[in-house]
Amino acid sequence: MNNNITLIFSLLSLAMIWIFLFWIYVDYRVDSFRQRVFVLRDNLFDEAANGRISFGKAYGLMRSTMNGGIRFAHQITLFHMLVIAVTYPRRQSDIKFDTLFSNMIEDLPENEINILKEYKYKFELLVTEHTLLSSPFLLITVIPVIVSWIVLRYCLKSVNKVLRYPLGEINAQAYAVGDDSSYKHDPMLPPAQPLIP
What we know:
mainly alpha
């Protein structure tokens, strides 16, 4: 009887984790991406309204691109990105976005070019972040490893500060064992002793 209850609770837990990762979390990531692109698009409009850039073709291109990102955010997935990356050499797209963007900004003043490039970069950064963070597979496998590595590096830096004196002694001994001739010239180093007696 206890085994059956445990099995039922395990299955319910797995179902809830699946619902969270593949439904609730993915929907949250899509909504978050859309909101952040809305803000970016509004900021781009403010730049044009304040006269820092013109309401020209390059502005229209970036605005339309952001609108497309908002509209099709649910289709921007890691799988979609991988398919594009694998098939790209064989694809002959009618629209090369980077070429089109470059052509539209080439005659603009330098300050406008810099602003538009910055917004293009920010949008691409949002797309990349959304692609990586909206993937349940990466959330389960790769991201915990990266976070653990960052935490470990941070902890190691703190541990190194605490162990500064012992580490200095070990470094001096390691140097002594590695380069015996140094003792003839450097009186600051302790007498040469092997690290392992």
